[in-house]
Amino acid sequence: MITVHSVNLSFAHNGATLPVLRDISFHLESEDYCAIIGPSGCGKTSLLFLLAGLLQPDSGTIDITGSPRSGTILQNFGLFPWKTVSQNIALGLVLQKRPPHEVRRRVDSLLEEMGLSGFGEHFPGQLSGGMQQRVALARALAIEPDILFMDEPLSSLDALTRERLQNLIVDIRQAKGISTVLVTHSIEEAVFLGRTIIVLSGRPGRVLQIIDNPDADTDNFRQSDTFFQRCIAVRQILAGEVDGPHA
Ligand SMILES: Nc1ncnc2c1ncn2[C@@H]1O[C@H](COP(=O)(O)OP(=O)(O)OP(=O)(O)O)[C@@H](O)[C@H]1O
């Protein structure tokens, strides 16, 4: 469970203060699937970093119940090009000093689960974008996280590869009971993957609206009328055609 209350964030830039996030408040239940969407530069990545504990707010609070183990997938995959696929996937486990036989077992099972069997000794540069993304996903899953933070994980992929990986994310979180927080530019992706969709304004990012999207993850949602209606609703909020409760 994550509760964000009246969070403000700014960066110092060229001697001036750049306000990035203003008065952000929301609440996520455990095993929620959250999508954060907003215009470029509105502070989405900064908000994800705050949630992941990689940044601290200027004011306000972020309370996370328990001590969930978190995995993070950064923009552009964040793989080490000089390490093999297996070594990349093993990274978190090695840092946790897990025994080598356990690391090998987890890596082999994730290679299979992600459809990467036979590519363990390849380097990231020898793989397609979709495969690299699956390596990044496997690396984040290796430590068996309770919550997965993802920063535009699929943005550089072609449309069909992107859809396949969106489906894979759905399968994984259903099978493993993982909460996800996803930053995306894509309205369709936010609606497909976000059960709670947080729509931010331009910088400094404020919450324009929080949309409850309970149909995310249900069968055939992508083809349903509800899906298209929600996409239109999110587009209207982003375009300023509808005032949200916090606008
Ligand atoms: N470490 C930093 N120091 C100074 N300014 C920063 C820093 N990180 C981000 N910013 C600025 O904060 C603003 C928000 O950046 P952020 O990356 O959070 O936005 P975003 O919504 O994720 O952008 P995009 O959609 O383009 O990826 C931008 O104007 C950016 O230049």
Automatic annotation (TrEMBL):
SUPFAM superfamilies: P-loop containing nucleoside triphosphate hydrolases. Transmembrane segments: none annotated. CDD domains: ABC_NrtD_SsuB_transporters (cd03293). One of its GO terms (molecular function) is ATP binding. It comes from the Bacteria. Residues 4-223 form the ABC transporter domain. The keyword Protein transport does not apply. InterPro entries: AAA+_ATPase, ABC_transporter-like_ATP-bd, ABC_transporter-like_CS, ABC_transporter_ATP-bind, P-loop_NTPase. Keywords: ATP-binding, Nucleotide-binding, Transport. Pfam families: ABC_tran. This is NitT/TauT family transport system ATP-binding protein.
